[in-house]
Amino acid sequence: MILGIGVDIVDIRRLEEALRRTPGLRLRLFTEAERDLPAHSLAARFAAKEAVAKALGAPRGVSHLEAEVRRRASGRPELHVTGRAAEVAYELGVKRWHLSLSHDGGVAVAYVIAEG
């Protein structure tokens, strides 16, 4: 059963400029494993973090660092959720996450489904 759906789109250049202007932003938005990726990958991951929050109903107290996009050996992206985000997911009955990422034409998009 689908418990939540989230989608977000990010302008790659705008994110890149924000990260250049405010270096500490990279530390607040991305996990250590994500920080050194190219701009289009960071934009897709930021979109995924926003989409996770939307799928959870935008609860207070959830940090961007609590949703990490990892790659399986096959290359398929997967979500790893911790902290307050994981607590809310547990309370909602989320058992599985589905994630789709894409980037083209200067934008990145992420689509997240929380399944129970």
TrEMBL record:
SUPFAM superfamilies, A to Z: 4'-phosphopantetheinyl transferase
Catalytic reaction list: apo-[ACP] + CoA = holo-[ACP] + adenosine 3',5'-bisphosphate + H(+)
Location comes to:
Cytoplasm
> What name does UniProt use for this protein?
Holo-[acyl-carrier-protein] synthase
- One annotated GO biological process: fatty acid biosynthetic process
PAC domain boundaries? 1-21
Q: What class of enzyme is it?
A: transferase
Which family is it part of? Answer: Belongs to the P-Pant transferase superfamily. AcpS family.
Looking up Pfam families in the UniProt record yields: ACPS
Tell me the function of this protein: Transfers the 4'-phosphopantetheine moiety from coenzyme A to a Ser of acyl-carrier-protein.
Q: Where does Mg(2+) bind?
A: 8, 50
Gene Ontology cellular-component annotations:
cytoplasm
Q: Which HAMAP family match?
A: AcpS
Q: Which InterPro entries match?
A: 4-PPantetheinyl_Trfase_dom (IPR008278), 4-PPantetheinyl_Trfase_dom_sf (IPR037143), ACPS (IPR002582), PAS-assoc_C (IPR000700), Ppantetheine-prot_Trfase_dom (IPR004568)
Name the Enzyme Commission number(s) assigned to this protein: 2.7.8.7
Q: Which domain of life is it from?
A: Bacteria
- Look up and give the organism this protein is from: Nonomuraea muscovyensis
Instruction: Give the molecular function GO annotations.
Output: holo-[acyl-carrier-protein] synthase activity; magnesium ion binding
TM annotation in the entry: none
Q: Does Transferase count among this protein's keywords?
A: yes
The alphabetical list of record keywords is: Cytoplasm, Fatty acid biosynthesis, Fatty acid metabolism, Lipid biosynthesis, Lipid metabolism, Magnesium, Metal-binding, Transferase
Q: Which cofactor does it need?
A: Mg(2+)
